[in-house]
Write a structure and sequence with these properties.
Blueprint (H helix, E strand, L loop, with lengths): L20 H11 L1 E11 L2 E12 L2 H6 L13 H28 L1
Antiparallel strand pairs: 1-2
Family: Belongs to the gas vesicle GvpA family.
InterPro entries: Gas-vesicle_GvpA-like, GvpA, GvpA-like_CS
Organism: Streptomyces fructofermentans
Length: 107
C-alpha cells in the first residue's frame, strides 16, 4: 500500500499500489479461488480419456462456509473419523458375534 501524508493540506496521491505475496495469499484464503480444467485425449474423434480437474484453494473456515468439510469425515485424515469407523466396525462385529452365539446356543 502507498503511504499517505495528511499534513497541512496535503492530499492523498493515488498511484500504483504494491501488494506483497502475503496479502495476495490472505485474500485468496479468505475469499477462496476455484481453478477448473478438463483434459481430453481423443483418437480419430473417439474419446479415450477425460480428466476433469477442480481445485479449490481456501482457508478451512472459508471451505466450511462453502459446505466443504470432507477432511473431517475421512478416516485417513481425521483421527475422530477413524475412531468412529472403528467404533462402528466393533459394533457390527459384536452384533454378529451375538447372533452367532445365540444361534449356537439354540442348537
Amino acid at each position: 500500500m502507498t503511504d499517505v501524508d495528511f499534513r497541512q493540506g496535503a492530499y492523498p496521491v493515488s498511484g500504483p499500489q504494491t501488494t506483497n505475496l502475503a496479502d495476495i495469499l490472505e485474500r485468496v484464503l479468505d475469499k477462496g479461488i476455484v481453478i477448473a480444467g478438463d483434459i481430453k485425449i481423443e483418437l480419430l474423434d473417439i474419446e479415450l480419456l477425460t480428466i476433469r480437474l477442480r481445485l479449490f484453494v481456501a482457508s478451512v473456515d472459508t471451505a466450511k462456509k462453502a459446505g466443504i468439510d470432507w477432511w473431517e469425515t475421512d478416516p485417513a485424515l481425521s483421527s475422530r473419523a477413524a475412531r468412529n469407523v472403528m467404533q462402528e466396525e466393533n459394533r457390527l462385529l459384536r452384533k454378529r458375534l451375538e447372533e452367532l452365539e445365540s444361534g449356537a446356543a439354540e442348537e
